[in-house]
Write the structure tokens for this entry.
Amino acid sequence: MTTRTPPRTAPSTGRPAPGRAGAAVTVGLVRQLRRGTVVVAVVCGGLAGFVAQEYERTFSGAIGADSLAALAENPAIRTLFGPPVALDDPGGFTVWRTGTVLAVLVGVWAALAATRVTRGEEDAGRAELLLAGRVRLGALVRRALAVVLGAGALVGAAVTLGVLLAGTAATGAVLFGALVGGTAMAGGALGVLAAQLLPERRSASGLAVAVLLAGLLARMVGDGVPALAWLQWLSPFGLAGRVAPYAGDRVAPLLVLAAQVAVVSVAALALAGSRDLGTGRWQGRDHPRAPSRLLRSLPGLAVHRTRRPTATWSAGVAAYFLLIGLLATAMLDFLRDNPAFAQLAAAAGFARLASVQGYAASLFSLLAVPVGAYAAGRVAAVAADEAASRLTLLYSRPVSRVRWASWEAAVVAAGSVLVAAVAGAATWAGATWVGAGLGLGEALRGALSVVPVALLCLGAALLALGWVPSAVLAVGVLPAAGGYLLLVLADSFGWPAWVREVSPFAHLAAVPAEPADVAGTVGMLVVAGVLAVVGIAGYARRDLLG
């Protein structure tokens, strides 16, 4: 028997060590982004590899040396698609055909993902609980940035793997993947930086995407105007032409891209360490304002919530389609002088490019993608507001969810019509400036003909709001983005007719070059209405988020 006092043990605090807490935060961030990263990586890698694989069967030998030289010198082609180099190589053709599309896709995705895991977590109040422990705000932002950059690198690696498996040159494949991955990293870094500057997720997302699209505009101007070619160095999209995978294979522009990502990342981390949780460095002026008269009714509230995004989207599509109109005569002259490319365009689904009306109709089909994204994004904003408990006060009043969702959907539908009409008017203005001969009525009819596809996106987004609220944006953009991609691939590679008919774009007529497809339009409107009704019914029955 002993009388010695047993040694004391330190009481457990219940808090993990700082290293373990940081690792747990990283794991949580990875879980938030892993699904989207896998989807984007598979889509980008698969598309790039598929186009490279099909090149030999479809396009090899179809373009002569003279046509290639004319293509490289045409300012309209360079402005819209970038400098065409190494088109006689499957890898070079893939870079030219898919490079800009993939870069925009991954850049916007990474920017939105970055604002979701940073500012979005603060808006929802989850970051406040997390920061009550050993993790500090600066460390949280640093880990979020690292995870987002890593996700972008994985997407770039998937693109490299896709074109390598298609048999393209290794050096060009690595550079192409590095460009796509670097653009994703740049978008992610911009998203994290915007989240430190602005106090709301939606405004931070808008700022990051606006900067990215401004970079795309700089690339288009730099490629189309030789005197402004220096603008290419300011944008991830412009640096792709400087690298020239499968042709020049230059590494130096990639170093510029890495420096851009580093500068934006350092700025984001510096701002994160000098602000309070839930705030941004750009707070705006704090002064009383009279409440808007629009807030006196549900329709007015829906308009109040939608008017600013509608104006922003309208300005963006107006700038792009004004450029489309200004390039009309240059593109028509090029296709008239180079019938080989006119035949390739017809094989890819653009069969009416011989006239300005056919040219406008072909490019108006692209309009359905941004207008559909606008509609899906507005419904996604409803889901985000619900998750952040911003709709709780509204629903505490005698307001049914069916009424509110119906008014919101109606206003978004009207906004979709407005965005499309603005694009049509901008195209007419550009075409009139260069004397292309496109009437205002023709331009408006062509632009408004794609609204049914946007309404399909609205219906799909409402369906997801009611039944899969965590995937509103992804489901909402599927009819436009997925449908357009399916149509292009089906037309380019001769897929069965029933596969092509699945795409909503297969039921759009080439307005104003031909009359509208009334049956197809009515069919899409009916489907959109059914999706909306089922979605709103599910929204009324399920539990609220947040």
